[in-house]
Write a structure and sequence with these properties.
Layout lengths: L4 E3 L3 E3 L14 E11 L8 E10 L2 H16 L2 H7 L3 E2 L9 E2 L1 H20 L3 E2 L5 E3 H7 L1 H4 L5 E5 L2 E5 L4 H9 L10 E10 L15 E11 L4 H18 L5 E6 L9 H17 L5 E3 L9 E7 L5 E10 L1 H5 L4 E2 L5 E2 L2 E10 H11 L2
Parallel strand pairs: 7-11, 13-14
Antiparallel strand pairs: 1-2, 3-4, 5-6, 8-10, 9-10, 11-12, 12-19, 13-15, 15-16, 16-19, 17-18
Helix pairs in contact: 2-10, 7-8
Length: 363
């Protein structure tokens, strides 16, 4: 569906409207900037004036907005990072952050807090390689569903990929030994460095980079343990955010996307399990239809900073498909081999991004 919006006698655009029921609702506005622009972006056409502005119901709302914009400019982590000698970027590695000695002080404090939380909630820490054979990525589903975001190389005539996610490595670690139902849930954490190709136009300081570290963890459990494990992760996430000084949170539940692996029945079971955990914690949430990961539905956590901006940080993803693809099993009480459920979770998501958020929060 294509919607056209008309305003007055001469303005039409592919823009959802109306913006306001009448101009009388615009209590205050301000022209923020003026710039030149060619008609249809064609330099052979006439030069036009593009006017930028903002409108609000009251003068108070306008003043508060302008104050937040000015504060955001003053707190810009890219500027503070340079002024305080925290980190830098180079044209020789676009999208790859260089963390300086002072920046590593912040980084190490973040990691120390996360490690303490992992110990408190019963996680064991592992470390997996950043380059793995492309056969692994075919098996995990990333080759078919995430290839355009990956980097590749060749070693001894064989194709390899730099990992964009840590979960397949966690599956290989689980598979190295036999497991009894008595060992489950098994919670393994990793500060995993991942690489994802981002278009040059969307990179933005530490907020959007091509190499970053995830505070990742994967929980292998029995189906009957799903709800209690998710409840535990929610508690871990909220406790961690409060430790960093954030008190205002919001939650979203993202459901089955068009590009996915696994049957509709598996997706429905997984989605209902996430809903049950949120209901148990009496957490209000918004549903994002079709925005889940390709391997399972997810709960996304947002924190609101001092400028009332919302940042998506943590995530919980429920996965029935990847354990089957990797042939993961445990021996149950009846001595039969069964497939565990896999819960992916990250508290901060990208450590680089969260460091940028902290710099602007306390800047």
């Amino acid at each position: 569906t294509i919607s056209f919006y008309s305003h007055g006698d001469g303005f039409e655009d592919l823009c959802r409207g109306p913006h306001v029921p009448s101009t009388g609702k615009i209590g205050a506005f301000k022209i923020t900037s003026v710039a030149g622009a060619y008609w249809h972006g064609d330099p052979t056409q006439k030069m036009l004036q593009r006017v930028y502005g903002t409108a609000w119901p009251t003068k108070k709302d306008l003043d508060e907005y302008l104050h937040r914009i000015e504060e955001a400019r003053r707190r810009d982590h890219r500027v503070l990072g340079r002024q305080l000698d925290l980190f830098s970027f180079s044209d020789l590695g676009p999208g790859f952050a260089f963390m300086h000695a002072k920046g590593m002080v912040i980084w190490n404090e973040m990691v120390d807090l996360l490690r303490a939380m992992n110990r408190k909630y019963g996680y064991k820490e592992i470390k997996t390689p950043i380059i793995l054979n492309e056969e692994l990525w075919h098996r995990s589903g990333h080759w078919d569903h995430y290839r355009e975001n990956m980097y590749f190389t060749e070693i001894d005539g064989q194709g390899y990929a730099i990992k964009p996610m840590n979960c397949p490595g966690g599956c290989l670690v689980f598979k190295t030994t036999k497991h009894s139902y008595r060992e489950l849930p098994l919670r393994i954490a990793e500060f995993g460095m991942v690489h994802r190709h981002e278009a040059s136009g969307v990179m933005h300081g530490l907020f959007r980079v091509r190499q970053f570290t995830q505070d990742d963890a994967h929980i292998f459990c029995k189906p009957a343990q799903i709800e209690s494990e998710i409840i535990g992760v929610i508690g871990l996430i909220f406790e961690t955010y409060r430790a960093f000084g954030f008190q205002d949170f919001s939650v979203e539940l993202s459901t089955q996307p068009e590009n996915h692996i696994g049957s509709d029945e598996i997706w429905e079971t997984a989605t209902n399990a996430l809903k049950a955990a949120l209901a148990h914690k009496q957490i209000q949430y918004k549903i994002n239809e079709g925005d889940g990961a390709f391997y399972g539905p997810k709960i996304d956590f947002h924190v609101k900073d001092c400028l009332k901006r919302s940042w998506q940080v943590g995530t919980i993803q429920l996965d029935f498909s990847m354990p089957e693809r990797f042939g993961l099993v445990y021996t149950d009480e009846d001595n039969a081999e069964k497939t565990p459920v896999m819960i992916h979770r990250a508290v901060l998501g990208s450590l680089e991004r969260f460091m940028g958020i902290l710099i602007e929060q306390y800047g």
